[in-house]
Write a structure and sequence with these properties.
243 residues, alpha/beta, Rossmann fold, OB fold (Dihydrolipoamide Acetyltransferase, E2P), five-stranded parallel beta sheet, five-stranded antiparallel beta sheet, 7 helices
């Protein structure tokens, strides 16, 4: 098991001491630094380059989210938010945190959070290798889960993130749609809009809405938008399928 280098950031010294003691009982984790200052944390993260940070949200000077904003996305470590409040869970999901740990937490729950951080790191490493994809790791309901490509119906772009639709379930992947398109097998997936990629086998029809916009119908009954520049390729696909 590869060791994880962790950094602890909380404005309460007692919270840091408790985290540090508890992490000593987690195999494969090395605490490489800690601070009670959110501003100092930005500098320390840049210098130490930890794999994982356990980060409080409500801190003086900067919030945990503001700390993350000051770290370039390409160098950002896996993040476990450690907080006494559940009001920020959705925002934590939006920034692709590995987990959201509520105070007071148990040893077992901390170890589960570290495991999710490890999965987050493994998923990023796999993405960086640029190997052909067989699945995507996404955030779903405060968990980091794997979705196999043949479960996906379509993928919706949201800036630096992609929302993966798999039937009635969705999950958020920390990658751009352009980056995904470069790695997805074009025999299995097709770009149908500047903000949408569909799995070819999930497409069951093409129709025009009353507004004049086109969209594809998917096996689950969901719809994805179709852009004009992608219409020719999509119609060719549907003609080949019909033949």
């Amino acid at each position: 098991m590869q060791s994880i280098r962790a950094m602890l950031i909380d404005d309460e010294p007692l919270a840091i001491r408790r985290l540090s003691r508890s992490l000593q009982r987690v195999p494969g984790v090395e605490v490489v630094g800690s601070t009670t200052s959110a501003r100092d944390a930005v500098t320390m993260i840049a210098a130490e380059k930890p794999d994982l940070i356990l980060l409080d949200i409500a801190m003086p000077g900067l919030t945990g989210f503001e700390v993350l904003e000051r770290i370039p996305p390409e160098t950002r470590p896996a993040v476990i938010f450690v907080t006494a409040y559940d009001a920020h869970a959705v925002q934590a999901f939006d920034v692709a945190a590995a987990d959201y740990l509520m105070k007071p937490w148990s040893q077992a729950r901390l170890e589960e959070a570290v495991d999710r951080g490890r999965l987050w790191l493994e998923a990023r490493a796999a993405r960086d290798v640029k190997a052909p994809l067989d699945s995507l790791w996404v955030h779903r309901h405060r968990a980091f889960v794997r979705i196999w490509l043949d479960e996906i119906e379509w993928i919706e772009g949201h800036g630096d993130y992609a929302r993966v639709h798999a039937g009635e379930s969705t999950g958020l992947a920390r990658t751009t749609l352009k980056a995904l398109e470069e790695r997805l097998d074009p025999d299995q997936f097709i770009r149908v809009h500047r903000s949408a990629i569909c799995r070819r086998a999930a497409i069951v029809g093409l129709h025009r809405k009353p507004t004049g916009a086109h969209c594809v119908s998917l096996a689950s009954g969901a719809e994805a938008p179709v852009g004009r520049r992608y219409m020719h390729g999509l119609k060719a696909l549907l003609h080949r399928t019909a033949a």
